[in-house]
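Example record

The entry below shows one chain as it appears in the dataset: sequence first, then structure tokens.
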Amino acid sequence: MRGGGVNRVLTGLAGVLLLALGGSVLAVGLGAPPPHWWIHSGAHDVLLSRAERTHWRGAGWWWPAVIAALAILVLLALWWLTAILRRRRLTEVLVGTGDGAGALLRGRALQSALTQDAARQQGVAHARIHLRGRRTAPTARAGLQLEAGADPATALHDFTAQALTHARESAGLASLPAEVRLGTVKHRAERVT
């Protein structure tokens, strides 16, 4: 299961749990008989009695620990929410078909084809490409690891003239801007005898 599926399942489970708990609290508060798993016996019981609320009052660590735990839970929830809302990769690209309707191309398919074209270039040992942006105006972020002795200018020119141009033309895009980062494959120093 991919990250999106896990997020949907966890969000759904949390929603069902909170809905069941909140609904049962509301129902008991309105006078319905409490369920068998209910922690209190009567409809007029409070969730925390005075004795339960003041039990740990004398311990100096209790309230700072409760506040710290709640703050950590809030920060984790905010981090999870921002991770879900932030799209890192482009999921689909709108391809012009000429009839005005357009077709959707999977972002991973275009990304994979662009990566394979870039990796086949002379002097490129490994290529990693991510598509970002909007589906009508995608952008590419490429990382090319060059073999030892490869000319960076030639590799960059070949990437833009061949792989990037081929991807742009095959998807029918007016432009496909790219940010390219070049690196070299680590290799051992050669011995001179």
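Notes for this example: Residues 17 and 87 are 27 Å apart (CA to CA). The two ends are 55 Å apart (CA to CA).
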